[in-house]
Amino acid sequence: MRIIKAEQVTQSVRRLCIEANCHLTDDLKNCISACRSCEPFPVAQGILDQIIENYQIADENNVSVCQDTGMACVFVEMGQDVHVEGNLEEAIHEGVRQGYADGYLRKSVVRDPLDRVNTGDNTPAMIYYDIVPGDQLKITVAPKGFGSENMSQIKMLKPSDGLDGVKAFVVRVVEEAGPNPCPPIVVGVGVGGTFDKAALLAKKALLRPVDSRNDNPFYAALEDELLERINALGIGPQGFGGKTTALKVNILSCPTHIAGLPVAVNINCHVTRHQSEVI
Amino acid sequence: MSKKIQTPFTREDARSLKAGDSCLITGVIYTARDAAHKRLCELVAQGKPLPMDMENAIIYFVGPTPPKPGQAIGSAGPTTAYRMDAYSPALIAIGQTGMIGKGKRSAEVIEAMKKHGAVYFGATGGCGALLSKCIKKAEIVAYEDLGAEAIRRLEVEDFPVTVIIDSEGRNLYETGRAEYLRSLE
Questions:
Q1: Positions in chain A short of pLDDT 70
Q2: What value does the mean pLDDT take over residues B89-111?
Q3: From the candidates A240, A267, A272, which should be mutated to test the interface with B, based on the most B CB atoms within 10 A?
Q4: Which of A49, A119, A168, B162 is deepest in the core (most CB within 10 A)?
């Protein structure tokens, strides 16, 4: 049994909140640059240039890429041979509290969806735990902005809707979102499981690097096909027209019930943020 | 070629712009988003004075990050505008001429824009670090309790925007997409 102190978790979450909000990952930056090279529409080229200049300014000045520094989604992969000394959950919230204060990040969380009083420190974090083999603790912080979160949808399709139903739904969600989620977007898709599992898979799909290939060749081909269909819509960067509507489609799948075909689409903007650390 | 706009932004100024125009705004604009709009419209409904003059005003839908030492303002890009659809017509009716945001607007907002002469501008979403460089000064003028959602008076210089919907209801989201798809034929 390996012992990790709660304070280590707090410091890790604090660092990851700041890092994720101020510095995009290289895979995403490379993808945006590559899309700029392939974008034929002049208006869209101009927008992509601004997006590139923006993340460069954020990198140089250590400031947040976007003013919506999101809800802090925290994914914990906890080795079953790890014991955290102290209160793990509170340690994570404390890391968010410190990171959002010290990083000059926006506090965007209200304590209740209906009375809407700001908590003032961006807590609580949305925390997801997975118990895995081993004696390490992997923490991923993915700040999620709500311009794109609000454009996400879930649908309980029928098995008879099949593959075509899944494709049509994903493309429809992106088309209905149009300019609202700040395209170019990254599209996370969760297929299968239950109502809640599909949504979580869609969110986890956004953590996969945008230069990654799906391990499953069937889903890898589906990701490519959906990206192509989405980029044929013509919505373009910011919705002003163009080829680059989406940067990547990532799919995660899961076994499901004989009667069901849940599909969730979690949209992220071009500021798709996540940083991880292994303790 | 970008058109230069100097505030105050009159109805005549608004009517001179067309969807798709690139503009650079210099002068004073005000920030407000969901919670501030709700309060402003409650004041309008009660016939009470507003904390800023709405006549010829441009409102920027933004909730900035806190400034680092030495900065006038933190990252400050636009938020999605449809959440203000319930409130914008009432503010346009009392003199607001410009809105800066991103994303679609309702038919009611567009009707109010056509009736009174107002423009909906887009700033590039997700580019808050870049846009903050054009904001030279920021001070809270109302609702400090709302934090990021407080109303701020901004002094901007060559703040880059694009006309998304003009005072005749032309919409860049429709024309831009159609133009791109035509260019493929």
A1: none
A2: 98
A3: A240
A4: B162
At B1 the pLDDT is: 79
pLDDT confidence of residue A43:
96
Q: How far apart are the first and last CA of chain B?
A: 27
Contact B139/B153 with Cβ under 8 angstroms? yes
Taking the C-alpha atoms of residue B130 and residue B76, their distance in angstroms, rounded to an integer, is: 8
Residues of A in contact with B62 (CB under 8 A): 67
Instruction: State the pLDDT at residue A147.
Output: 96
What mean pLDDT comes out for the span B112-125? 98
Residues in A closer than 8 angstroms to B76, CB to CB, are 67
For residue A5, the distance in angstroms to the closest alpha carbon of chain B comes to 31
Is residue B86 exposed (0-12), middle (13-18) or buried (19+ Cβ within 10 Å)? Answer: middle
Q: What is the pLDDT of residue A57?
A: 97
Distance CA A252, CA A235 (A): 25
> Residue for token digits 């009375």?
A115
What type of residue is A203? K
Q: Which two tokens stand for residue A30?
A: 């490379």
Total number of residues shown for chain A: 279
Q: What's the CA gap between B64 and A107, in Å, rounded? A: 10
Domain boundaries, chain B: 3-183
Q: Is the domain defined by B3-183 classed in CATH 3.50.50.60?
A: no
- A185-193, strands of its sheet edge to edge: A153-157, A261-268, A185-193, A246-256
Measured distance CA(B75)–CA(B157) in Å, rounded: 16
